[in-house]
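Why does residue order matter? Because the sequence determines the fold. Keep that principle in mind as you read this record.
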Amino acid sequence: MFYKYSSFGGRLTPSEANSAFQAQSLRSLKVTSVDTAAEMASSSGASIAQEVNKLSRFQRLFQTGEAPIHLRGGAKDIMTYRGAMVLSVVGIGVSLFTIFQMATGQMKKKSG
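Structure:
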């Protein structure tokens, strides 16, 4: 069985072999250009050195074994982790409470 793209329905439809292998319409590709601002390599030399220093600092930080990997970024990582854990516990609690209400028949049915 052969299939052909139907531009009317936007789906594949069954068809005969000879019509399935004939091109319906060939459109040319749109020419796209990417606008990028080019800089001289020498103008960004200082920022490259800063990035290398930052990279080596992060490598030293994450290769030490003193704390779990998700808590090594400092106070911001700790607060993010704790917030995610609190939201997880609250979500599980709400889900279990809703399941309990449905199981005991206490949940009100919405009429609509």
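Residues 66-105 form one domain.
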